[in-house]
Amino acid sequence: MGQTQCYKILSEHLVSGELKRGESISIKIDQTLTQDATGTMAYLEFESMNLDKVQNELAVSYVDHNTVQVGFENADDHEYLRTVADKKGVIYSRAGNGICHQVHLERFALPGKTLLGSDSHTPTAGGIGSFAAGAGGLDVALAMAGKPFSIIAPRVVEIRLHGKLQPFVSAKDVILKVLERFGVKGNVNTVFEYTGDGVKTLSVPERATIANMGAECGVTTSLFPSDENTRAFLKAQGREDGFVPLSADDDAEYDDLFEIDLSSLEPLAACPHSPGNIKPVTSLKGMKVDQVLIGSCTNSSYMDLKRAARILSGHHVAPTVSLGVAPGSREVLLMITEDGTLETLIKAGARILESACGFCIGNHQSPGTDSVSLRTSNRNFYARSGTASANLYLVSPETAAASAITGIFTDPRECNANLSDITMPEKFIIDDSMFIMPTYSLDIKRGPNIGEPPENTALPEVVKGHAVIKVGDKITTDHIMPAGARLKYRSNIPHYAQFVFESVDPAFPERAKAYKEKGESGFIIAGNSYGQGSSREHAAICPMYLGIRAVCAVSIERIHQANLCNFGILPLLFENEEDYGKIEEGDELELLSPLSSLSSGSFTLRDLTKNLDIPMRLFASEAQKEMLRVGGRLNEEKA
Fold first, then answer.
1. In whole angstroms, what is the distance from residue 20 CA to residue 151 CA?
2. Which of 108, 140, 307, 472 has the greatest CB tally within 10 Å of its CB?
3. What beta strand segments (E) does 435-581 contain?
4. What is the dihedral of CA 501, 504, 507, 509, to 10 degrees?
5. 3-state SS string over 78-133?
6. Which of 61-70, 306-315, 402-411 is least confident?
7. For the chain, what is the radius of gyration of the CA atoms?
């Protein structure tokens, strides 16, 4: 039996474990990336390991999140990141150089390499054939220290593409079709692998868009083969020497199959408030639109912006619409400046935004009250934009541009623009002057907002306390730890912890703190798909700081489960889903014999308020059990 592309890469990087679906394995990580919102804590964690320099093949620190520098905190964080990168042997990508995933795809990602990033959209590099996964900052810090990364050997789903996309239908519509089929939950420890004759019709940037939003399905990563299109992209980037052909064997066996006829696809949209809430654009036609934003790590490539500009050419944005365009990288900005695309966008009334994450993370461009915002980004979670009452729709650049002109939801196929000649250029403008290479000579600078990574205590013999909060299904890490205006506090855990569950229950931090001061453990009770979305480890660190010892949920997403274990919080699942409904906020709870239960993985949660015993199972590998015993991975590393 032949191998899938996924298992070919994993076998080349296997450090320990049996490469068999469902088994715990450890793999060598070649490349790492961080971004400034998660990177500050990652480098503080790396510093705590007392190593002179990073041990992996390539480490890059990107500044792309907190570029709207209101107050001293962001600038101080960036100076810390610049100096610690120099001291520890990390390439530093300055603010303005672009979004980490777009820039990494352009300048560093390679087929067959493993990449671990402290951002959930790291799988973007799967578009070039890298096994690229998002993780918490501590896992990335450990990878920089040369430690292997532990995962469950995944099930691999083949997504077989046939035919060719019709005009005004794009790669964004492909991944929205995948989301329609697989949803945003139930895909833990899964990899999507794209095959079929339709793959050769897609450029690397288009493949990257599809791989990027596989993260919304909750998969570990997505993979495209490395073929002649990959070679052409690398050649255009001046990196052809990194090309290797890579694909699944003809007789590879998959765990599931989903086939898509590209020629039959139509423009789609993800409706509020989930990337999995998919509807055809035709069903939304005529809806008033207030804001249109084109960019983010999903759709900010040169070809994305060129197509949008071609549709906008000769038109002007509707007077009721605010249109913003954010090129994904400085390279993209240089390209559209040289060929006149930027001028077309400006003449059409677009506001040109910085090459950064910006609006996608709610860091600016918050829409108006009760407004409709069309965005080419990857997430439309409730309140993520900074405006709780707004309705966000995720669409292709083509749909976004067409709707910006009319002021209403518009099917781009109604446009009369010609997009057929827009193809990937034979050569990109290459300017790496915004990368700072390490000299190993600078002193590390720390502003007053730079703290230390907090440590947990070992698992106690008695875990007793209260259900501090009970939440429903699909609670994202945005719900747990807000981004936007709060991002600048991520290196200051005591302050950032004041905003845990801010959009769900602003009283949570004070309640949790009061229980902690009484010497009690805190419990979070949750429904399905708890912790989906961003990889932010702060969604585990800050609750841990407030005394949370266990999350009891119907299901927990992969990256968040790993982050909980990393910081000593027990990820427990209800054996019987109906037991979730029996616990109420404020109930007094106790885990019976937690230390002995840790070994078996079977726990009993006693609801002392209701006199109920509820069976739970631990969602953790054997290695993670030891982590939980000692109170987290940092404790384990220092032992």
1. 12
2. 140
3. 435-436, 463-470, 521-526, 548-553, 570-574
4. -10
5. HHHHHHHHHHHCCEEECCCCECHHHHHHHHCCCCCCEEEECCCCHHHHHHHCCEEE
6. 61-70
7. 24
**Structural tokens at position 469:** 């909060």
DSSP classification of residue 273: B
Which of 173-182, 318-327, 593-602, 629-638 has the weakest average pLDDT? 629-638
Q: What is the rounded CA–CA span in Å between residue 542 and residue 304?
A: 38
- Omega before 479 within 30 of 0, i.e. cis: no
Nearest to 150 by CA among 601, 625, 635: 625
Q: How confident is the model at residue 454 (pLDDT cuts 50, 70, 90)?
A: confident
338: its two tokens: 């040289």
- 520: which 2 tokens? 């009690």
Instruction: Give the model confidence (pLDDT) of 339-364 as tens digits.
Output: 999 999 999 999 999 999 989 988 88
As a whole number of angstroms, the distance between CA 242 and CA 505 comes to 49
pTM recorded for the entire structure: 0.93
The closest of 619, 620, 625, 593 to 606, measured between CA atoms, is: 593
pLDDT of 471-501, one tens digit each? 999 999 989 998 877 878 888 999 999 999 9
Secondary structure of residue 487 in the 3-state scheme: helix
Q: At 55, is the secondary structure helix, strand, or coil?
A: coil
Residue 639 pLDDT class (50, 70, 90 cuts): low
Instruction: Return d(Cα 8, Cα 424) in angstroms, integer.
Output: 29
CA distances from 399 to 47, 135, 456 (A): 46, 32, 48
Q: Which residues pair with 550 in a beta bridge?
A: 523, 570
CB 104, CB 212: distance < 8 Å:
no
**Long-range contacts formed by 507-515: CB under 8 A, 24+ apart:** 508/468, 508/469, 509/546, 511/468, 511/469, 512/468, 512/543, 512/546, 512/547, 512/548, 513/546, 513/547, 515/465, 515/466, 515/468, 515/547
| Residues 325, 345: Cα–Cα separation, whole Å | 8
Question: Could you tell me the domains of the chain?
Answer: 5-264 (3.30.499.10), 268-414 (3.30.499.10), 463-638 (3.20.19.10)
Please report, to the nearest 10 degrees, the dihedral formed by the alpha carbons of residues 81, 435, 216, 295 taken in order: 120
Tens of pLDDT, residue by residue over 378-437, are: 999 888 888 889 999 999 999 999 999 999 999 999 999 999 999 999 999 999 999 999
- Residue 621's closest CA among 562, 535, 552, 539? 562
pLDDT digits (tens, 9 = 90+) for 572-609: 999 999 999 999 999 999 999 999 999 999 999 999 99
Residue 264, pLDDT > 90, answer yes
525 pLDDT exceeds 90?
yes
| Virtual torsion, Cα 368, 371, 376, 382, nearest 10 deg | 90
